[in-house]
Amino acid sequence: MSNDYTEMWSSLGLNLQAHQGLLGVLSDAYQNIYLSQQGRPEGIKYFDFVISEVHGQRIVEIVKKKMEGKPIIGTFCVYVPEELILAVDGVAVGLCAGADVGTDEAEKYLPRTTCALIKAFMGFKLAGLCPYVESTDLIVGETTCDGKKKAYEILNEVTGKVYVMELPNMKNDESKILWKKEVRKFARKLSEITGIEITLERLKEASSIVNAKRKALQRLSALRSHDPAPISGLDALLINQVSFYDDPVRFTSQVNGLCDELEKRAKAGTGVAPKGTPRVLISGSPMAIPNWKLHAVVEGSGAVVVGEESCVGERNFSTLFDRSFSSVDETIDAIADRYMTINCACFTPNNERLGDIKSMIEKLHAHGLIHYALQFCTPYMVEAYRVRQAINGGRFPFLGIETDYSMEDMGQLKTRIEAFVEMIKEGPHS
Amino acid sequence: MLVAGIDIGSITTEALLFDKEKGIVGYTIMQTGADSKKTAEMALKEVLAYPGKSASDISYIVSTGCGRKRATFAKESVTEITCIAKGVNYLFPDARTIIDIGGQDTKVIRVDKRGRVIEFEMNDKCAAGTGRFVEVMAKALNVELDKIGEISLQHKKELTISSICTVFAESEVISLVSEGEELEDILYGIHKAIADRTLGLINRLGGVEEQVIMAGGVAKNIGVVKALEKALDSSIKIHVEPQIVGALGAAILSLEKAA
Question: Which of B82, B105, B137 is nearest to B216 (CA)?
Answer without folding.
Answer: B105
